[in-house]
Predict the structure of Polygalacturonate 4-alpha-galacturonosyltransferase-like isoform X1.
Amino acid sequence: MPHSKRNRSDGGGGGGGDGCRSIVLPRRLLLSIFIVSPFLFLLARGGVHSQISKDSEAERDFATNQTTNWRERLAVQNLKSVLTKEVTDSISISRSQLDLWSLDILGRHHASSSWKTSGLNDTEQDITSLKHPLQTGSSADWNSIQFKSENPIGGELAATEKEADGADGNLLTDTPTKVFRRVSRFLLSHHSAMRKPRELRQEKRAMELVQQDEEALVKLENAAIERSKAVDSAVLGKYSIWRRDNENENTDIKVRFMRDQIIMARVFSVIAKSKNKLDLYQELLNRIKESQRAVGEANADSDLHHSSPDKTKAMGQVLSKARQELYDCKVITQRLRGMLQSADEQVRSLKKQSTFLSQLAAKTIPNGIHCLSMRLTIDYYLLPPEQRKFPRSENLENPNLYHYALFSDNVLAASVVVNSTIMNAMEPEKHVFHLVTDKLNFGAMNMWFLLNPPGKATIHVENVDDFKWLNSSYCPVLRQLESAAMKEYYFTSDHRSTLSAGSSNLKYRNPKYLSMLNHLRFYLPQVYPKLDKILFLDDDIVVQKDLTALWSVDLNGNVNGAVETCGESFHRFDKYLNFSNPHIAQNFDPNACGWAYGMNIFDLKAWKKKDITGIYHRWQNMNEDRVLWKLGTLPPGLLTFYKLTHPLDKSWHVLGLGYSPSIDRSEIENAAVIHYNGNMKPWLDLAMTKYRSYWTKYIKYDHPYIRGCKLTE
């Protein structure tokens, strides 16, 4: 049966030999395909892999370019809101001129130490944006990264990584994880190297800025030290003049509070008395007396009596009670207004008293100077006539010498003027002093300079009463002073019997306005007819430098050389003259600058040519009723020498030492002449102590006459 089965199967195909051959041929074909196909597959795989690598690299470059362009555009758009248009334009130009950065470009262009790392943040962002292939699940891009051996940077990277991973490492067959690590380490190491030059430059710039700050700080400290040297107003008893926090600016708060309480208590006491509340009235009076005793003469809280807190508290309780019982806003306002008016009247009265006393002190001769004048006068008239003459009288009319005119009735003041001039003169023998005084002091003035001659200089003393040509028929001032109206004005008009009332014209009752010595300055050519130039000096000045240069000053055809005194809005013509009068308003400028008497260089030739004395007489006659100006010599001088005065440099003549306490010390010391104009003359007790030493150093206080009259510094 088996055999029959095998035969059946073999013969069932319609011929057994042909069937076997047909089966054997396909088997051989399959076997050859299996043998050849691996070789074909390997050959095809190499070409396909190469093409795929090229396509993948091209796609990667395109994607990189797109990503880089997108990031650059985004960065520029974000910076436009911060940077100026010029900066963004320069960034765009630079971007268009530069190629895309890549490792190949870095390989072709070697790194330099001068590279700027302004793109550091973007690069670091690119590094951190690289995703690990394990996170993305794709390794195609990482397998396509290749580093050629001819690339210096790629070779460096390969060498570095071979050392790190072992001798068998292969960059072309490494896993994507290793490639990611290698790229990250390489880029970070190179950016660290690129960052060093910038850090060095930043450190250098920081050091320069620190040095500049230190230099600026040193300059500020030096300037502060220089400013502190000029500070001489240290307050004694204070911790430090610079520490304001250690000094209570309101040191009189309690004093003022107690005085305010006293004022209110007075108001309520008047109201209480008017309303017949006698108990409260008496209590208020008692508290007022107690508070007044506690305050006393205190000007600061530290001066108050130790019981002042209790007095303040007690007064506050009484005022609270009075407020509850007596407060009426209208009545209190009326009372306070009345008290204010009364206080204002008291202030005016005290001001008049002060003016009166200051004027009285200014025109009063101190006992020591009066004593000196009397003793010198007695000794002078005891001298024989032949001993009363001064030497070198031939110099009195020599126009080639330096002549001074000094009109004074004060022996001590005149001696300071002469001594200070001679002591500071380069050639004392060329200086000539013409002194004119009154009959009362003529003997004293002569005796003093006979006993104390001014070295080699020439001096001559005259009596104004000996000028017979100076009479009322020629001089308008003398005629006016002899008139009944002027006597009434000076001695009886508006004269009050009390000091508090004072006198509105007290200033002009000063004897100097009644003396012809004060008006003699308008008659210099008549007094010294043979001189060409003369320097006029007041007796309240001190000479500190040689004055001979004044004779060389070109007055430009003017008569008077003087220092102007006008400031922003004061010491101008409208201060001295009555511009409501048409004679003044039509002929003079109210804003014209005033000038000072006290040191004036006069051209006597030009004086005579322009008839200055005649001009003075004309204006003086027009002012007989004092409608143009008050008394004095400066207003008529401004009118007489109007547009005929040459301004001198201010350093020649510094004024104000007789009334202003704020003159700068350097200004005084650099001045050729300093002037004590004002009431605080240096020989009076009213003199300002800070200025007095400039005057007293020219007085010999050990002189027998001065010591005998008890004149001291």
